[in-house]
Amino acid sequence: MAYYLKGTLKGALCSDCIEPLEGLVLKAYALAPGRDVAALAVARTKDTFEGVPDDERDAKAARLLAEATIDAAGNYTLDFSRAKGYQGEAFELDLYCTTVPRRKSQEGLPPPMQFMLTVVQPQWRQLRDDRVAAWDYTIPYRTWCGIRGRFGAWVICGQVRHCETKAPIGGVRVRAFDVDWLQDDALGDGVTDGTGHFRIDYLAADFKQTIFSPTINLEWTGGPDLYFKVETLSGTPLLAEPPSRGRASDRENAGPCFCVDLCLREQPPMPEPLPVFDALGGYLYASQIDSAVPGSGLTLGDHRAFYSTVRLNGVLPKTMNGQPMEYRFEFRTTDALGNAVGPWTPVATTQFAATVIGKVERYAPAFPGDPNPVKTANMVADPASPGAGPTNAAIVGGWVQVPQFANVFGPDGFFVPNGNMLNVMTPALVPQPALSMAGVIGGESSTAHGAALANNRHVALRMRVRVVGQPGTEADAGFCPHVAIENTVYNQVHKGGSWAPVDVSGQLCAASVDSLQLRAGGCAGLNAALDVVFTAAHPNLGAVSVSMNGPGGPYGFGMPAIPTPGDWFGQAINGAPPPAGGWTFAALPDCAYIVTLSVQVLLTTGDSVPLPVQDQIAFCKK
Fold first, then answer.
1. pLDDT band for position 216 (50/70/90)?
2. Which domains does the chain carry?
3. How many CB atoms lie within 10 A of CB 497?
4. Is the pTM higher than 0.70?
């Protein structure tokens, strides 16, 4: 049995500015002898956080149980499977830092540092053959910013809004300066996102140096004295604070993390971005799907085909060449390598589902003093309601017209696209016949009674845009050369073996398990042997496993070699793999047992994946 601790670890820079601790290492150590486990496990993390001197860090290396590098989203998984003798007890959790996220430069780094976060006593829960627990934490900004300061990594987080409406302003550049005795230091700049937030990373050296550095350093105070300038991306000034603003008490001697709100009295003119389709759900087709020709059309890394309804998305502006824009998607069939075998065909209104393409924002207080005067509503492109409306985009001849609402104070409001363009129903693009598993029982090939093996279908996708009603302006706005699609439905799949037999339709794959002894004796108790047989079929098979729960379990089974890709069948092997290996049927205590077949299918909508398909049988050992 393996133990896994999963969670997220982040650091607060401001109340609304949190960063994942990407690249840092989380380490779990067995507790040192004599520590008060109960007191430490319930103590607040801010009370247990402390630096670990180098000599202590070296001394505790022998107690290391597991370590994990934190990913770009702040996620980590501590795997204790290699920790000899670990049985789920409490442990120390340390953070090891060679740098900090988004440090402007990796030059001049101090030696690595380690900090003890807390003592954790996980609440383990059983998940199949393993035990899993979760621990999420955000290091408070005073602590985390102190660590960043020790690495010389300083940061400014802020938001730019309209002074009157408080609406966020995206797409403007913010420049930060430090007031200095001889010349002001330009610390850096950042561009606001759609919520008006920006971030500027700089180094302590950026404000501590003067024109005489390194001979003379005239930055006597601990931090910079900050003032800001805001401009359009083309350089037009929108806000220019005077240097004297940096000497005010709220700007003087800023610390390693500084949070600021800036406001503009006028909404800047915003140029429209270019339209582009670049992703299927969360997968960028250029870098996260094997979409080039020749290629598999599967996602890279996890090798999944797409199924069900898939969200096509990217950047969706309102206009094209300054005029209202409309768009549609087209597809064509390809072979398994992505070579075209069919013509481009528009995605029909019967082939896509209602899609939320953005929000409409209106300043409409319900009463004087309404604390929420700005109201929002989803804007939907819905084939069932193709007429233009306050919350519906017009769909004319299959073209979706992007709403042009542009006055937050008017009755129509202001439309803000979210990048979603079309929820395409892949079964409607390339229909795939259902497969009947009638007569197939656990242990047999899925083709034993005449059914064929399913195969992925393959298509290319592209987005077309034009000025509303002007065919002469039509142009491509994103082309995915190759995507694998798999929507085969398996009918009359035998479930429950010979214990509680039933045929089930509408399955994502074939998944059947049985026992040769139950097949011979029905519900009779078993006393001599247990031979488990199984069938699992799908063109994108993932992990396939057989396990058994009962007294002393769970018990593992080994799997035979797969006879044919996409069609795995045969007899499972008792007593393997470790750590459940070595058991024998004769040694099992007399009781009831449940055998489970679990089949993972490598499919995705782009945003989610299906749960494993299972089948179970039960028996009594007498």
1. very low
2. 3-137 (2.60.40), 152-264 (2.60.40.10), 276-430+475-481 (no CATH), 490-620 (2.60.40)
3. 27
4. no
